[in-house]
């Protein structure tokens, strides 16, 4: 394997890492409560619920968060 191939594989693994709401809060600054509100109102990034009901654990793919942020990025000078 070349260095380029290894680097691409590592980058993909990092992008598909699963994050808990607390990890999202720590890395991206969105509070756990804000994430919960976004799930309730279907406004936030896509998420994974590992089991049904209120007790199901929530995980976010890093790639889903990055995609959601990219979709909301406004080009310089564009009206918000």
Description:
Helix content is 51%, strand content 10%. The chain is built from 4 helices and 3 strands. It has a 3-stranded antiparallel β-sheet with strand order 1-3-2. It is flat. The relative contact order is 0.16. The model has no long low-confidence stretch (mean pLDDT 88).
Give the N-to-C terminal Cα separation.
Answer: 45 Å
* Strand tally: 3
Strand arrangement within the widest β-sheet reads: 1-3-2
Q: Biggest sheet, in brief? A: 3 strands, antiparallel
Order of helices and strands: HEHHEEH
> Which range does the strand content fall in?
5-15%
Query: Helical proportion?
Result: 40-55%
- Broad structural category: mainly alpha
Radius of gyration: 15 Å
Uncertain segments are none
Q: How many helical elements?
A: 4
